[in-house]
Amino acid sequence: MPKKRLPTETWYKNIRPIIWKRDKGKCVRCSVEVSLKECHIDHIRSGVFANNKLSNLRTLCYKCHVLRADIKHRGMVQRALKKGVIPPNWRELIWEDVKS
Ligand SMILES: [Zn+2]
Q: How far from each other are the two terminal CA atoms of the chain, in whole angstroms?
């Protein structure tokens, strides 16, 4: 069966608030408070194991999301550097917890 992606509307209206509330409006990694609008919902397992089950999703702040060692996040690094969200030594701060 072809993989079906959730429509963007469902994602924003339903899933984001559920994950954000479950994680108490905080980044699960550094515990900084993030607003529903600003939070980043991250797939814990990405790539072939990615799914939109609630257990595979978590709330991250922008910084932790950018610094996650996921090749798909690399595009965000340059933008985050320009904005000053991450320091020039960001490579030392890369983190990873789940091997996918
Ligand atoms: Zn964080």
A: 21
Length of the chain: 100
Q: Which CATH number fits domain 8-93: 3.40.50.1220, 3.40.1800.10, 2.130.10.10, 3.10.20.90?
A: 3.40.1800.10
pLDDT digits (tens, 9 = 90+) for 12-30: 678 899 999 999 999 999 9
Cα(70) to ligand 1 centroid in Å equals 15
Q: State the distance from the centre of ligand 1 to the C-alpha of 15, rounded, in angstroms.
A: 19
Q: How far is the CA of 33 from the centre of ligand 1 (A)?
A: 8
Model confidence pLDDT, tens digit, residues 55-96? 999 999 999 999 987 767 778 899 999 999 999 999 999 998
